[in-house]
């Protein structure tokens, strides 16, 4: 059903939207620091910490202190079934679980530890590494744990296909359009 008129006693949809937008803007501006920035908690899933450890290992700059801190965080977010999710109370995610597992191995957790065995069992039951997203397999390929030949390849010339073409890239990936896409054109 489409409502084309305001219900009795309620503002019309455009007016209600404008009111909500104004209230939200006032609230956000009220939270802004005098220096122009906002301060608040930012929470992500464990892939950020896991991939940070993987990158530091790849670059040869990983430290034991950073590894220990990241591992504590990653362990604290593991669920009873051995998995990790992409968001708070979300469903178990295979790629996130694989990346968290690999990061914990880098940090020194034994594969025989109960929390690691639960994760490994769930990973195998969910299809294993072949069923992970391509970015997870790229991380593993960087360390020789997955074959580069097993990763999908896309000819770089495909970037020049028009956006309307079925295999064409989104506007943000086409040359000369990235900045315009970011500005909302």
What does this entry look like structurally?
With 185 residues, this protein is mostly helical. It contains seven helices and no strands. The protein has helices at residues 13-31, 46-59, 64-76, 94-106, 114-125, 134-142, 178-182. The longest helix has 19 residues, at 13-31.
Class based on secondary structure composition and strand pairing: mainly alpha
Number of strands: 0
Task: Enumerate the spans where pLDDT stays under 50 for 5 or more consecutive residues.
Answer: 177-185
Q: From the 3D coordinates, which CATH architecture of the largest domain would you assign?
A: Alpha/alpha barrel
How many discrete structural domains? 2
Radius of gyration: 23 Å
- Can you summarize the main beta sheet? none
CA(first)-CA(last) distance: 31 Å
Order of helices and strands: HHHHHHH
* Average of per-residue pLDDT values: 86
Give the percentage of residues in beta strands. under 5%
The CATH C-level name of the largest domain is Mainly Alpha
- Determine the fraction of residues in helical runs and give it as a percent range: 40-55%
CATH T-level topology of the largest domain: Glycosyltransferase
Oligomer: single chain
Count of runs of 4 or more consecutive helical residues: 7
Task: Summarize the model shown.
The chain has 185 residues and is an all-alpha fold. It contains seven helices and no strands. It has two domains: 46-150, Alpha/alpha barrel (Glycosyltransferase); 154-185, no CATH class.
